[in-house]
Amino acid sequence: MPSKYPYPISPPLCPHCGIPMEKRSGRLGGNNLMQKIILLLLFIIFPTYFSNASFLSDSSTYCKLSSSIDRSYYVNGKAFKILRYDPPYYAIQGNAIVESFEDNNIYCGTYIFFYDFTKQEMKAKLINVATYDSYGNTLDTHSVNESAYFVPANSMIWSIGNFYFYRI
Length: 168
Prior knowledge:
Elements: H1 33-51, E1 62-67, E2 71-76, E3 81-86, E4 89-100, E5 105-116, E6 121-133, E7 138-143, E8 149-150, H2 156-165
Antiparallel strand pairs: 1-2, 2-4, 3-4, 4-5, 5-6, 6-7, 6-8
């Protein structure tokens, strides 16, 4: 049977496993140093890239309440202020944070949440909105002048308000 090699010697063997080098073509190893370098760079670069995707995920200050296909909702668990404590009426100022994956911005709204414990009703009033990039750099800030509105139960604003009220 004629040999497929132009020389009568068998193909070079891998020094580690003894398999002929041509049979190792689909595997990482042998003389393919470029594949090793590329994989090493991927393992070094990508974990740091994704872990720094947002300053919200790197901090214990922010608590994620919910997420969907295009956004995540957070509250700042350390930045709230009790404005009124007169049972059954309460008022707390806190931040509702939306991380939008559509435009890679983070929107932080400062709200005052009014709660009537007897009626189990909540109102919310937006005071100001700040826009940040994913690293926390401020892009825009502006005040909002709107009246307080009733918050429907089980809405995201209701969940954010409840986070603050039940933290007391």
